[in-house]
Specification:
The protein has 4 domains: 125 residues, Rossmann fold (3-Layer(aba) Sandwich); 172 residues, Rossmann fold (3-Layer(aba) Sandwich); 76 residues, Orthogonal Bundle (Helicase, Ruva Protein, domain 3); 54 residues, Arc Repressor Mutant, subunit A (Orthogonal Bundle). It is 48% helix and 14% strand. The strands form 6 sheets. A 5-stranded parallel β-sheet has the order 2-1-3-4-5, sandwiched between helices. Strands 9-12-15-8-16 form a 5-stranded parallel β-sheet. Strands 6-7 form a two-stranded antiparallel ribbon.
């Protein structure tokens, strides 16, 4: 869509004529016949440009333009007038009009002017969002982080937020994939629309289709009324399909068809309904491997994976652990009304040394527990769970100079492969890439290790 235009003219026929022509040129166009009605529409809906007549009963087009410029700076207004005098044009520019056109309108020239105005407006909005992101030195939206991996993620989020392309968010459990999805929605042009999230793993296979697509009355025993599904509830906004890797194959085919056509049929319904949502998906599974194993449809994978965002695990974020921990201390101390002001030096060392397999979710849980139990102004080592206090980082031990300590090459390889798998959260595709192996070779080695263990047992 080239842009969303609001047409304001007291002549209904003129509004309809312009609307019809603009829609043929791939603009979205709506109209009203008074400045008062236009102002109300602007408060209810987002537009990229306003096209208004000058001479109208009541509030004139120039007065409407002045009102928009004063309260909606940056929103371009193009003024139409049948009185193509220099004085009218100058008056329009003086009150802040972006451009003006004369009647009778040449639609080719109007389309060019609207295109220019829309691009100008969207560029301004993008610069504004970039400036806001730069001002947030330690995060993006509700996310917090100062490490290079998070800086790179924030930079990616700024660039993808305004795109309409589908985004797949990958990362280990507890890294904050839904938080990333909400940040994308909040920074997008769909921010005023709804954000709807559904956990595909939390719903039984028999209910998932009804939850997503909705159902008609009488579709099944308990369907006493029509019910709008989650996709339609997200109309005009963003839909997050969390844990999409758990979606049954049969449901994947139905979802793909709906996404390709932007239409769906409620369960038991006799007609299709169109929808307009931006799709985000999230998973902690290795979907590439699932595709190879025929557990996930390849065509759906390419449809949802237009842009991929990888959320770094907490162990790869360095001192972000302490940044997050201090934020959680403040939150839980305030909530429980306890005078806890920070973290002791030794406790901070233990937090940094721990590998955080549960990521940010686990850190939050640890700090909440520590604040609840501590009797000090700062969290001490004894306030931390034993697994954090006593943690020792695992290393790939090759051996020393003593021949009795040396191990076979095969065992070194096995230990290193297991170490890499642990470092990437079990993602075999990433592990194979780091190890320089193709996935089939890695799978073969892992199966061999499993069989070796079974034989030893």
């Amino acid at each position: 869509m080239r842009g969303n235009v609001l047409i304001v003219d007291d002549e209904r026929n003129m509004c309809e004529l312009i609307q019809t022509d603009l829609r043929l040129r791939d603009f979205s166009a709506k109209w009203c016949t008074s400045a008062e009605e236009a102002w109300q529409r602007l408060n209810e809906e987002d537009f990229d440009v306003v096209l208004t007549d000058v001479r109208m009963p009541g509030t004139s087009g120039l007065q409407l333009c002045e009102q928009i410029v004063g309260s909606r700076p940056g929103l371009p207004v193009i003024v139409m007038t049948a009185f193509g005098s220099l004085e009218t044009a100058v008056a329009a520019i003086r009150v802040g009009a972006y451009d003006f056109v004369t009647k009778p309108i040449e639609m080719d020239l109007l389309a060019i002017g609207l295109d220019r105005a829309v691009k100008h407006y969207r560029l301004q909005e993008q610069v504004k969002r970039l400036s806001q992101a730069v001002q947030r030195q330690d995060g993006f939206g509700a996310m917090i982080g100062e490490s290079p991996p998070m800086r790179r993620l924030f930079d990616q989020l700024v660039r993808v937020a305004d795109a309409e392309a589908s985004v797949m968010i990958t990362g280990e459990s507890g890294t904050g994939k839904e938080l990333v999805a909400r940040a994308i929605h909040d920074q997008s042009r769909r921010a005023r629309g709804p954000f709807v999230a559904v956990n595909c793993a939390a719903l039984p296979d028999t209910l998932l289709e009804s939850e997503l697509f909705g159902h008609a009355r009488g579709a099944f025993t308990d369907a006493r009324t029509d019910r709008k599904g989650l996709i339609l509830q997200a109309q005009g906004g963003t839909l997050l399909l969390d844990e999409i890797g758990e979606m049954p194959i049969a449901m994947q085919a139905k979802l793909l068809r709906a996404l390709e056509e932007n239409r769906l049929r409620p369960v038991g319904g006799d007609r299709e309904v169109s929808f307009d949502v931006r799709l985000l998906s999230a998973t902690n599974r290795d979907l590439e491997a699932a595709v190879e194993e025929n557990r996930f449809r390849e065509d759906l994978y390419f449809r949802i994976n237009v842009i991929q965002l990888k959320i770094p695990p907490l162990r790869a974020r360095g001192t972000d652990v302490l940044v997050l921990a201090k934020t959680f201390v403040e939150t839980f101390a305030k909530r429980s009304n306890k005078p806890v002001t920070g973290i002791s030096h030794h406790a901070a060392e233990r937090l940094l040394a721990y590998s955080w397999p549960g990521n940010v979710r686990e850190l939050r849980n640890v700090i909440e527990r520590a604040v609840a139990l501590t009797q000090h102004e700062k969290l001490m080592v004894d306030d931390l769970p034993e697994r954090v206090r006593e943690y020792r980082a695992s290393q790939v031990f090759i051996g020393g100079d003593d021949p009795t300590e040396l191990v076979p090459l095969e065992q070194v390889e096995q230990r290193y492969i297991q170490h890499v798998l642990q470092a990437v959260g079990g993602n075999r595709t990433n592990a194979a890439r780091i190890l320089g192996l193709d996935r089939k070779t890695l799978y073969r080695k892992l199966k061999q290790y499993e069989s070796d263990v079974a034989e030893q047992d």
